Every structure is written in structure tokens, then in C-alpha cells.
Amino acid sequence: PLLMRAYVETRRDGWPAVDTLVRRLEAHLTTLTPAERAVLAGLEADLRGDLWGRLQAARELMRLTPASVEGCTLAASSALFVNRPREALVILSRVDPDRGLLLVAPFYWINQAPALHRLGDHRAELASARQGLRRFPDRSSTHLNLLTALAALGDLDGLHREFPRLTRDDPDPGLAARQKSLWIWRELRAHGHAVAADRWLAEVLAQPPPNGTDSSLAGILVEGDLLSSAGRWADARRAYARALRHYRGTPVLLGRLGTAAAHLGDRAEALRQDSDLAHLSRPYLFGSQTYARARIAAALGDLATAVNLLRSAWAQGRPLAFDDRDNEDVHSDPEFDSLRDFFAFQMLMRTD
Fold first, then answer.
1. Strands (E), 40-102
2. Which of 23, 154, 155, 299 is buried most, with the most CB atoms less than 10 Å from its CB?
3. pLDDT digit string (tens) for 159-202?
């Protein structure tokens, strides 16, 4: 029960609670089974921000419990965190999505489609996403997988057709729609569909934001990011600055202020935000502050520093793939456009 409680706390970003529970479990290590010790090793790796350690622990759990779909799906997601989509697909090929836990939870599908996306097999990604959504029609993750696949293919008609879906795990349907719209715009751009991306963004910006988006960090970030997507950097900067009054020291906001300043030609302010991020030292940041610094460096045109910071963020626990702590994916983040032809960045992003 303590292991399961600790795992649930990781899903809620309850890291102080995870830390406390792990210490309790470590005090009774001799009473744990080998599979339980593997789960504990994964939790310890999570607390360290050790994505490779997490994958190793998940592989061990999979070895110890070969009939368990839970171990396989955990290993598949862990492989994606370290940019190993082929390994994720091999692992998923070992399990039956019509069996056990996978009948009631979308873990198989929410790992398969992103793995195919990473490999550029967007037709297979679309087929996987459609099947996942058919089985779990009310989950935001399976809906987003379908939208991502359609965006990668540049299917604007398909996006308009599939977009209007409410999913039960969206805490704020109005905000969720704006957030998904932003992700779609990024994916359209990332896959070379510039005209479709412009049309999509214009349609989103023509709609007023829903009430209440200026009262939560998530809402402020979405609206600020939409403004910056349209090149309205001064407006975005003001939105981020207002949010910082209520969410002081938040890495994603400091990073957004730094990138906005860089785009507005205010190098001194961009470097000041970078310095503030570099001096953040509280626990459980998991590389989010370093990722934010990488975005600032890229916006300032310092490509080598940006890549080095991305590499450091990865080592600190910030995946190069989509990360729900800051709603960013290196692959589609427009701040890294300047790095796409940079050899060091290409090597960093290379899939194994």
C-alpha cells in the first residue's frame, strides 16, 4: 500500500509526500519482495530526477513480473522519457491491450502513439490514435494523441472535425480547448505546415479567452503563449509579469519573461531572468529551471549554450519529449527553431 500511495503521489506531483514514503519504505527494505524493490528503485530514481535509473528499474520490474501489463507500460513510458521510442514499441508489442488493466486504462495507447510520432511514422500514429480514442473516447490524453497525429499530417479538415470533443478529465473545458489549440499550432509548425498553422492560430485568436483564464497559472500561461505565438511579445510579457506577482519563483514564468525580453531586444532583462533561474535551488525542480534557461539561450541566439542546458535539464529529470510540468515538447517548441539545423542539437534529439 505504501508503494502504491507513493506512485499515486508522483502522478499528483506530491514530491514531499513521495520523499517521506520512500524513506519509510527504505527502512523496511528486507521485508519487500524483489518486484517491490524494483518499484522502490523507480521511485528513488524519480526523486533524483534520474530518468535512466527509472528506465532501468522499470526494466527490472518487467523482468520480475513478465505477466504484468503494468511493468511493461511503465517501462514503455520510461523509454520515451529517454528518447527511446523503438524500445517503447518493442515493449508494447509484448502486451495485449485487450487484457487486464489495459481494458480500463489507456496506458498502452498513450505510449504507442507518441512513440510512432517520435519515429515519424504518422500514418501508423494516426491509426493508433484513432483506436485509442475509440476505446477511451472521454480521455484527454487519447483525444490529444489524435489531434497531434492529424497536425503532423497537416490535416486541417480532420482537426476541425475532431477538435470539438469534451473529455471527462479536463478540469476546465474552456481552458483545455485553448491549450489543445496551442499544441496543435506547434505541431503544425513543427511538421512544415506553416500555412495551416497560421490559419489555425488566427481562428484561435479570433475567439475571446474563456472567463477565468487570468486567475490560474495554467490559464495565464496558455494566453501568454498564444500572444507570443502571434508575435505579440510585449503583450505576452505583461501577462507573464502579472502572473509572477502571484507565482513568484516559478521556473516556467521566469523563463517566459526571459524569452519575451530576448525577442523584444532587452538582452539585459533576459540575462537577469536567466541568472534568477540559475540560482533557484529548491528541491523537486527536475530540470524545469534549466529547460527554461535553454529557451532563453536559444532566443538570444546562443545555440551551443542552449544545447548544453537542454542536455543538463535532461540529466536533471526533464524529458526531451513532452513534459506535462511545463506543457512543452522540445520537438515542437518554437523557441528551438534556431537549433533545428545545429548538429549538436540533432545529435541530442536523435532517437535510439
1. none
2. 299
3. 999 999 888 887 676 788 899 999 999 999 999 999 999 999 99
